[in-house]
Records
---
Amino acid sequence: MMQDLIISRLSSFPMFAGSPVGDLEALAAMLTFKQYPKGSFIISQNDRGSTMYLLVSGRVKVTLASAEGKELALNYLEAPSHFGEMSLVDAEPRSADVVAVTDVEVLALDAKDLSAAIEVQPRLALTLIATLSLRVRELIARVEDMAFHDAAHRVMRVLLNVATASYEARGIPVVEGLTHYEIATLAGTSRETASRVVSQLVRDGLVATKGRRIVVDLFAMRERLEHDV
Ligand code: CMP
């Protein structure tokens, strides 16, 4: 029963789609299904951990907190995706907190089973490498923005990135489910600054707000960012 549930969840991951049933059964035997309510810390920064997680439903945020309680969000991840792979491969403490933003379902894989899982489905290794590479690229863009641009530019970049991802996934260039505070933590600025920038962008006609949804004119926003150096 649980095995069937795990197999059906596994098939929604591009890296496992099309795998023979026997392979999915072998993988399912290595995975544990777990549920976390909204607000739970699935991973805490600096802890020792040897489990990685396949996110099968819900949304998590990857985040850092300073000693004074300031927050810097590194990323929001939606299913299907994965996290917790870094400590699994380098045996260092956890690099960040991972917190459930909604109720979340995951499949947990223990370090001792990673090699066996890769033998069953080698695409797992390639996907882990590709994701690490993408995250490094995103961090390079972030460092560039921190070094060369002001907070307003960074807020616009967050809106553009999130709306572009939404356009690619769902065909609508919208930022939704993120509060101004959450946008601010992604941009490395205060909530007041994020709200001020959003209001100015509404006045300039680059975004339109509807309740908690921010619809972004992707073309105009890209133009603005290119000329705002
Ligand atoms: P690990 O260090 O084991 O635990 C925290 C996890 O957060 C880490 O593995 C990655 O899976 C994830 N993580 C760390 N930095 C980022 C980032 N910049 N973007 C997305 N996920 C990240």
---
Amino acid sequence: MQRIIKDFHSEMKKGLAGSKSSLKMIPEYVERPSGKEKGEFLALDLGGTHFRVLSLRLKSGRKTEAPLSKKFILKKELIKGSGSKLFDFIAECIKAFIAEQKLGAGEKYNVGFTFSFPTKKKNIASGLLIRWTKGFKAKGVEGKDVVRLLNSALARKGVSNTKVVAIVNDTVGTFVTRSYKDPNCDMGVILGTGTNACYCEKIKNITKWKGGRTSSGEMVINIEWGNFDKLCLTAYDKQLDSASANPGEQILEKMVSGMYLGKLAGLVANSLIEQEILFNGQKKYIFCKSKNFKSEYASAIESDTSGKLSRTNTLLKKVGIKNSTYADRKLLQRVCAIVSRRAARISASAMAAVITKIDPHLSGKHTIAVDGSVYEKHSGFSKKIKSALIEIFKKKASKIKLKLTKDGSGKGAAIIAATV
Ligand code: GLC
């Protein structure tokens, strides 16, 4: 963990200087919210298995009304087809939401767009997609300004009462949502389908920045830490990487996030099956091309406390393993626990690196806003992160608070839209 922290610091510095680095360190054109944001805004959230539209009313005194929202499933054909089809679908969802919520036809809504992919920004309202991650492949989008693509789709679908005024990463939305209420918050983290973080950096430290001073002298930086690659890979990591949609990229993400944790546990199990250590020589694989060993399964197996691991047995039957012994199930449970423990320790090291970049001696208090299915739901994950932070910082770990910030990517985008 100490080695990861050291390498992370060095990659962060290089990224901030604009030199070659696995960390992109993207200036997001966003500062901490002032608390004066007011009005009704729309927010869009694209970046995982669903697309979401929300409307949120911000009131004075840093208060918000409960948001109205609707989720739409993103089918495989959409994320792997043509970009214009994907954006047409998004525009149709927005149109349906506006009609369903009876939002005033005569009014113009400012929209905050959470786009959770590495995006190069020239200002708050434009973002060029650098590269798709998390299995997205829609053609004709990489290198293009996604706000433009969305605006053209909205025009094609006849939606005229919206204006996309801000595009932000989901980590930034999460950070802004928490720091709206908590002045100690200086970092936002996503541990979900993908993983990434942002933090507040002093302008003087962003040596590649040419944009002049900001009012606070700070700027939120999207680290894109999923791409950090100074890590020791096992044979399983290499196997997973070479079979992925983006070999050689997003190495940390492939060891940590929900899209891959189940696959990794599955690959380890497959190797034990191959060596006839697991399932008594029956060559039945729990994970292969046609079968996905989901991260949810790995989490359920890890947390199984039922007698003889009977819940794991039911789950294994579901994935086609009819006969397993208690020893098999115990071994599989251990595999799942090791995979998630490593993921939590890598995440904790990356968090520790960012916090010590901001405050090397941990003199102040720090809140880390965290969202995502792995942090929220994966068995014992948040506890494992906390114990790794204690291992790193000893008593001083109490200065760091991790706060689950649900729906940050929706609310935060609306708050940011209100600052524009
Ligand atoms: C991937 C994306 C990143 C996003 C993260 C969490 O790593 O590249 O932009 O923040 O997933 O959704």
---
Amino acid sequence: MQSTRVLTGITTSGTPHLGNYVGAIRPAVAASRQPGVESFYFLADYHALIKVQDPARVQRSTLEIAATWLACGLDPDRVRFYRQSDIPETTELMWLLTCVAGKGILNRAHAYKAAVDRNREAGEDDDAAVTAGLFMYPVLMAADILLFNAHKVPVGRDQIQHIEMARDFAQRFNHLYGEHFVLPEVVIEEQVATLPGLDGRKMSKSYDNTIPLFAPREELKKLVYSIVTDSRAPGEPKDAANSNVFQLYRAFASEPETEAMRQAFADGIAWGEAKAALFERIDTEVAPLREKYEALMAQPAGIEQVLRDGAARLREERAIPTLRVLREAVGLRDLSLAGRDAAAGSAGTKPALATFKQYRGDDGRFYFKLVDGDRVLLQSGAFESPRDAGGRLAALRRDGVDALGDGVVLGDGVDIDTVRAALAAIARDDAEKAARRNAGD
Ligand code: TRP
């Protein structure tokens, strides 16, 4: 059965905090262990450039976020873990999508509209200080998703509109060029609580109220003790439901621990005591991860290698073949095939592909040839086993004319460009079939 592809990106523009851990990292790592799911987690560093133009910060954040996900248990052998900018097919696909995306739709994107509204309020030109990168953000995100034909995209509420746009661009593309893209569905984790920050508002970098996930133990303690509370004295009953200390505790505690704490609040636990319990509870969960994190951060070359390997595999298996098909679909094509395609176009059918034929000669040895109708395009020499013959044949299929020579020669009167075109057409056909399998429909 075809597995469900689940994909999500993490913008590399900050340092992971407890809110990211509880709201995104912890549930994602748990989900990635489910069977029947192919998970894609990537570091959205192209997206980071839209917000952050400090190169050292982009690099630092990419390293920290990669180390965080690995320390929290993401297994790069089980999931697709990669860095967006290691997959240049992303930006290539972005351009193909840009050419079908409605500008009017992008005008309505929340982030862009908010920037325009701020400018209007300030009496500035609508687009003052708005980069084309911010405007195009949704198209880049659509490329991330559609490149791998993801079925499901888990994101925060603020991203729903982006997934809707990705569906819209996919539909327009499919309408023009054939059914290439699956329409992705948004997944909102309803029960994941947003964590309150130090000041009680949602924990967020933009409020400057975060607790870094891997703050050293002493700093973590200081931050927990600085959480804002009301001024009820020890012994006075406290309102658990409206307390940030309690909400934070609950995010890390088991059900019985949470109930015990709720009772302690009703019984008038002192704030200092509640904070001490909270600090210990967080540290119990985080300390072993912190240790792994620190080990990973001490070996950045190892992380670099993990990311490169992840991207190299993914490009080879998915991104490159997919772009080959998409380029073909929009007409970025091998010109040597122009005659054939035009003829086929007018006849309304695809040209018949040349085919490889394997056979046994009168001498009992093994051969193959590439034939186009009754014309022999390539002729192999003799092989001692069918396996040897098959191996050479596979190399030609894969590498095209680069794999010629070594006993394989052109047929009589055949020029190499004809063979190149025939092998390219076979490779394209192989890639198309693979992409269709990959799309699962
Ligand atoms: N825009 C997302 C965010 O800020 C990050 C992101 C980039 C993403 N590309 C994506 C999320 C593709 C899901 C799918 O949270």
